[in-house]
Amino acid sequence: MSAAITLKQINKLAIPALISGVSEPILSLTDAAIIGNMDYNATESLAAVGIVTTFLSMLIWVLGQTRSAISSIVSQYLGADKLSEVKNLPAQAIFLITSLSILIILVTFPFAAQIFKLYNASGPILDLSVDYYQIRVFGFPFTLFTIAVFGTFRGLQNTYYPMLIAITGAVANIILDIVFVYGIEGVIPAMHIKGAAYASVLAQIIMAVLSAFYILKKTDIPLLVKFPFNPEIKRFVLMILNLFIRTIALNIALYFGTSYATKYGTTYIAAYTIAINLWFLGAFLIDGYASAGNILSGKLFGAKQYKTLLDLSNKLIKYGIIVGLVIALAGALMYYPIGNIFTDDKAVLDEFYSTFWIILAMQPLCALAFIFDGVFKGLGKMRYLRNVLLFSTLLVFVPVIFITDELNYKLFGVFTAFTLWIIARGLPLIIKFRKTFKPLVQNA
């Protein structure tokens, strides 16, 4: 690796990672857009997709942290020129995480109704949430397998093949969504919300098959699990545990946001569903540069190139703010057409338009928070990430959403809480990073 990291090097990793990173939110946004335009239970179905998507995102983010842990360890060993010592780690990690995902299916499937009642779902929305979840959850192990393979590729400084896999999965999902939700007269009956769930599962299976193909064909990393466990499996598990606690804190915020939006009524949860899924899309677009930070910081840290690491962070701050502003500007230019993509319900659109500007305004702040999340994951500093998110959720987000609810701010209050939460997540990471690595560079 050269002494200086160029924009070209960052973009070579960031742009494919950006494209591959949007695969999961595209699955949910496609479901939301197609379901929101059905002529049967459209608003209730859209609300149900929002509730289930929030819960599934929680599961994926909790267990999908394998990507960050694998990427961190593999990239650090690559930087230290000791990759052969961890070649068997990805297969062992995949075995552990997919086994756990099957257990989660067995536990959550029969209790789906009870789970979504916790999100204040009731009546038709509850019934539709259960129908959608009890199909879509079977794609969960395939999603986790794909995520783990993506983490391995990232550790190897390769985001190109994950991009190809993600594009294929997204295109397959869009086609299958249209076919299964609306049906083909005389050939396939319209399955409505269930059809969207089947489409997502099939797209996730396609991505998992392609992931296995590329990792076996393009690398010498095996997928056959061999024991005993790699010595790094202990550090991997500790990383996962810290990220697990961190992600629970993250999902406490998402739970309260969804729960309060549902409490305010069907119109509000439908508007919230559109808004939060667009927020997720923005987050995953920014994740391309967060991934570059993750990938490059792990390798530089393993190689002890601290000055280059500090220079990288400065460039990522600049590029992150630019990307955030571009996303915000694009959203502003498409402010009203975006809402019409998802629904023609005027009441839902009015609520969406009244708060969408907050999501756009927070994009540069999100960029900084997510990018430094990625950098700290690359460094393997999962414990500090855990503590920051516990602080920002329990001492910032939760009190703010309680106060704004008392003030009857409704969705405005929900997204105000998210904005302050993002600030409380990002600022401590930037300060900690600079306090840690500036002295190392000055003393070198």
TrEMBL record:
The keyword Transport applies. Its main location: membrane. The chain crosses the membrane at residues 46-64, 93-113, 133-153, 160-184, 196-216, 236-257, 269-296, 316-336, 356-376, 388-405, 411-431. Keywords: Antiport, Cell membrane, Ion transport, Membrane, Transmembrane, Transmembrane helix, Transport. It is a multi-pass membrane protein. GO terms for biological process: monoatomic ion transport. The keyword Cytoplasm does not apply. It is found in: Cell membrane. One of its GO terms (molecular function) is xenobiotic transmembrane transporter activity. It comes from the Bacteria. One of its GO terms (cellular component) is plasma membrane. Belongs to the multi antimicrobial extrusion (MATE) (TC 2.A.66.1) family. NCBIfam families: matE. This is Multidrug-efflux transporter. It comes from Winogradskyella ouciana.
